[in-house]
Design brief:
The protein is an alpha/beta fold. About 30% of the residues lie in helices and about 25% in strands. The longest helix has 25 residues, at about 195-220. It binds flavin-adenine dinucleotide and NADPH dihydro-nicotinamide-adenine-dinucleotide phosphate. Belongs to the class-I pyridine nucleotide-disulfide oxidoreductase family. This is thioredoxin-disulfide reductase (NADPH).
Length: about 600
């Protein structure tokens, strides 16, 4: 605004240039209230504090001329006069404020269409709707080769984190039932487990979550289409519901959040006779003797709870356990699982699956080849393929509208989750270089919506994301594995502090000692900054969640040492780690 501009020009220009323009006074409590409201709604607004401006009184006069309002705050939205504090709060109460602010300047059906109603898609759509955008969500589950299908909420809720953690809990309870005898409970020696009852309980819980998501979408006036979406041009989708009914819908912006589905190896008999994590959590009959193919999160977690529930369980490992994780801990997990009934076939991949007997479960012969070229066979009732997941990015028209995909099939995005087509974004499991974890998808969806429709500027931080593998002995980690830390900083610059530990709860039932393990990886030249946090033991997820904030805030080993522990807990071990790996000293825990 030029220095000679009149008060009327200043008013007019500010109203024109700023979506939400507020004429205010710095000491005015009503102005403060409106500012707080805008902040809580993530609304970007501009203010002129009239009491701090030389020509404040003239501007206030010009405002009376323009709006008839003498008092502050005086708020304008999208060039139109809204009013003072009372009017702002009344508009908000009626649910009209955000739509007014985010009034569309296009002729599409929606401001935003989200493809995929899973962790990332629901987060993005709900936040965008909160910010006043007109949103639709398309979610459609293609049945598995076995015909399994599920409701709204995506992988995590239906066939991932939620049923997995609950089955993990079922197995833990079995172990604790044994412990309970030493604590005086007259638990019978032989207790049985009812697979179908567990599945029913878990599926009922999932059903309530599916319903809750539908209600949440309805409450936020988000249009939910239970239909499969395909792009026909960069702003248009064709949706097809389960009855084959087609609909064409358009939007200004799109968020791809289609997630992934389990991969099957290209070997005979696999799709006819094997299941995946998409089927196991709703399996209507007990699985019996089970083979899990794969050696990462899914294979090991499923193997852990199946063995814990009493099933004869084998894991077929192609190369190493838990690629990408700290290998010392991965091997300790393997040892613990082996000691607790899981069998491992190392260095082998299946080559064919044949049916021997029909039934629920049936019986199947699995032939496999070892790395030495030897052929091995065995019979199983259930075979679970857990060899990784493919992104659902094929056959949805991304090629026709030129959205760039990586070799993996994942969407190439920049740090703002924007694809090669500027109005098309992607979040969650399908982004190249991302992390396949629910909270990551949620954070990315939420922050993206805030950047698009609010005053958000924050980008999702994909570094130091804590995670936990829910094997019988849980493994929580944040930051670098020892291997990667050495590769990055060099062996001489790394100091590893570690200790075995015995949870107090394990002492009375005489569980084997020193199975649990804590490890901090520090960089000497960075004042022993902690770059890797690893814990193997009960409730590792809970422990890791808390400590990971330390890594985000660049905690050093001295910070961990200065922290006073909570006694008696297992997490307190991290406040007293004194033995370096380099010293070779004994790390077995010595009493309390
Ligand atoms: P999803 O949740 O997969 O949602 C995508 C949705 O889009 C699906 O409903 C899909 O059917 C739908 N869709 C696909 N294509 C279309 C289309 N063209 N039209 C309409 N709809 C479409 N993460 C954790 O953080 N902790 C855990 O403990 C954990 N455990 C897991 C256990 C298992 C067995 C598995 C498989 C995963 C686990 N994960 C875990 C990972 C987590 O589930 C995923 O990272 C998360 O669900 C990804 O969310 P998303 O939004 O990217 O996709
Ligand atoms: P991953 O991609 O992590 O691992 C695939 C596993 O299968 C590896 O062990 C791999 O072995 C093996 N494999 C690959 N191809 C073959 C083959 N042809 N024959 C035999 N074995 C093979 O997949 P997951 O399915 O376990 O997990 C997918 C993602 O889901 C994870 O990365 C994770 O982000 C998320 N998830 C998170 C969980 C959590 O937070 N607790 C739980 C479960 C999943 P190799 O090492 O030799 O390549």
């Amino acid at each position: 605004i030029s220095s000679g501009a009149s008060a009327a020009d200043i008013v007019a220009q500010n109203i024109q240039e700023n979506k939400v323009m507020m004429f205010s006074k710095s000491y005015c409590p009503f102005c403060l209230k409106v500012k707080d409201l805008f902040k809580s709604l993530n609304v970007a607004y501009t203010t002129l504090e009239l009491d701090l401006m030389e020509n404040g009184p003239e501007i206030q006069e010009a405002l009376v001329e323009k709006s008839g309002l003498r008092t502050v705050p005086n708020v304008f939205v999208n060039g139109e006069h809204l009013g003072g504090a009372d009017k702002v709060f009344e508009t908000q109460k009626n649910g009209e404020l955000m739509p007014l602010i985010n009034k569309s300047d296009h002729n599409y059906d929606y401001d935003m269409i989200v493809i995929g109603g899973g962790s990332g898609g629901l987060a993005a759509s709900k936040e965008a709707a909160n910010l006043g955008a007109k949103v639709a969500v398309c979610d459609f589950v293609t049945p598995t080769p076995k015909g399994t299908t599920w409701g709204l909420g995506g992988t995590c809720v239906n066939v991932g984190c939620i049923p997995k953690k609950l089955m993990h809990q079922a197995a833990i309870l079995g172990h604790e039932l044994k412990d309970s005898r030493e604590y005086g409970w007259a638990t019978p020696e032989s207790v049985s487990h009812d697979w179908s009852k567990m599945v029913e309980g878990i599926q009922n819980h999932i059903g309530s979550l599916n319903w809750g998501y539908r209600v949440a979408l309805r409450d936020k006036k988000i249009n939910y289409l239970n239909a499969y979406a395909t792009f026909t041009d960069p702003h248009t989708l064709k949706t097809v519901d389960r009855r084959g009914k087609e609909k064409i819908i358009t939007a200004d912006k799109f968020v791809l959040a289609t997630g992934g589905r389990p991969r099957y190896p290209d070997i005979p008999g696999v799709k006819e006779h094997c299941i995946t994590s998409d089927d196991i959590f709703s399996l209507p009959y007990p699985p019996g003797k089970t083979l899990l193919v794969g050696a990462s999160y899914i294979a090991l977690e499923c193997a852990g709870f199946l063995a814990g529930l009493g099933y004869d369980t084998t894991v077929m490992v192609r190369s190493i356990l838990l690629r990408g994780f700290d290998q010392q801990i991965a091997e300790r997990i393997g040892t613990y699982m082996e000691q607790n009934g899981v069998k491992f076939i190392r260095g082998a991949v299946p080559t064919s699956v044949e049916q021997i007997e029909e039934g629920s479960p049936g019986k199947y012969k699995v032939t496999a080849k070892t790395t030495d070229g030897e052929e091995i066979t065995d019979e199983y009732n259930t075979i679970v393929m857990a060899i990784g997941r493919d992104p659902c990015t094929g056959g949805i028209g991304l090629d026709t509208i030129n959205v760039e995909l990586a070799k993996s099939g994942k969407v190439v995005v920049n740090s703002a989750e924007q694809s090669s087509i500027p109005h098309i974004y992607a979040v969650g499991d399908i982004i190249e270089g991302g992390l396949e974890l629910t909270p990551v998808a949620i954070q990315a969806g939420k922050l993206l919506a805030r950047r698009l429709y609010g005053n958000g500027t924050l980008l999702t931080d994909y570094v130091n994301v804590p995670t936990t593998v829910f094997t019988p002995l849980e493994y929580g980690s944040c930051g670098l594995s020892e291997e990667v830390a050495i590769e990055k900083y060099g062996e001489d610059d790394i100091e590893v502090y570690h200790s075995n530990y015995i949870p107090l709860e394990h002492t009375v039932p005489h569980r084997p000692e020193n199975e649990c393990y804590a490890k901090l990886i520090c960089v000497k030249s960075l004042n022993e900054k902690v770059v890797g946090f690893h814990v193997l033991g009960p409730n590792a997820g809970e422990i890791t969640q808390g400590f990971s904030i330390g890594l985000k805030l660049n905690a050093t080993k001295a910070d961990f040492d200065n922290l006073i522990g909570i006694h008696p807990t297992t997490a307190e071990v991290f406040t007293t780690l004194g033995v370096t790996k380099r010293s070779g000293k004994d790390v077995n825990a010595q009493g309390c």
